[in-house]
Write a structure and sequence with these properties.
By secondary structure, this protein is mainly beta. The chain has no helices and 13 strands. The chain has a five-stranded mixed sheet, with no helix packed on it. The protein has a four-stranded antiparallel sheet with strand order 3-5-9-7, with no helix packed on it. The chain has a two-stranded antiparallel sheet with strand order 1-2. One of its GO terms (cellular component) is cell outer membrane.
Length: 173
């Protein structure tokens, strides 16, 4: 580019990628100078893209202590990570979250754990203040170590069969 009447040259840069951008200027006599400019992520377009909310630990026992875990990654519309974004979490099927909300780290990640006393699927949602939302399903499994048959739960459903080797009595637990 040619210089103006005062000897200045102005150029503009754009980028979809957050981070440093190195700019060098070289004159025809090989005199050279370099500077660094920085592009930042666009927090106005914060989102949790499909695939950016994942289950990192699954199939915990439904004993109220064992934990499943989910991790969200908050990025801008161009995939640049966003730090310090508040993510609201919710879970169903009686699951208890380690935090109802948490802030993303420098790489855009935030992880929460959850416990449950109820075996089965638990749907976890992560929501940003701009209503961007993602959901995943995590599963809790029955705790067979604490399984028991409670009084009254073993019942006779068919009784007084003839003792002929064919007729059947039945019980249900």
């Amino acid at each position: 580019a040619a210089s103006d009447a005062d000897g200045y040259v102005t150029v503009t840069l754009t980028s979809l990628t957050a981070g440093p951008s190195h700019v060098s200027a070289t004159l025809s006599n090989h005199s050279q100078a370099s500077v660094t400019t920085t592009f930042v992520a666009d927090d106005a377009s914060a989102t949790i893209l499909n695939g950016n909310l994942i289950v990192t630990q699954d199939n915990a026992k439904a004993d109220g202590n064992a934990q499943n875990a989910v991790r969200a990654r908050v990025t801008d519309a161009n995939g640049n990570p966003l730090a310090n974004q508040t993510v609201q979490f919710s879970a169903d099927n009686g699951a208890t979250l380690s935090a109802q909300q948490a802030a993303s780290d420098a790489d855009g990640y935030v992880t929460v754990t959850l416990t449950s006393l109820t075996a089965g699927p638990s749907h976890v949602s992560a929501t940003l203040s701009n209503h961007s939302q993602a959901s995943v399903t995590t599963t809790f499994v029955a705790d067979d170590a604490s399984a028991s048959i409670l009084n009254g739960n073993l019942i006779v459903t068919q009784d007084n069969a003839k003792a002929d080797g064919n007729a059947q009595n039945a019980v249900r637990a």
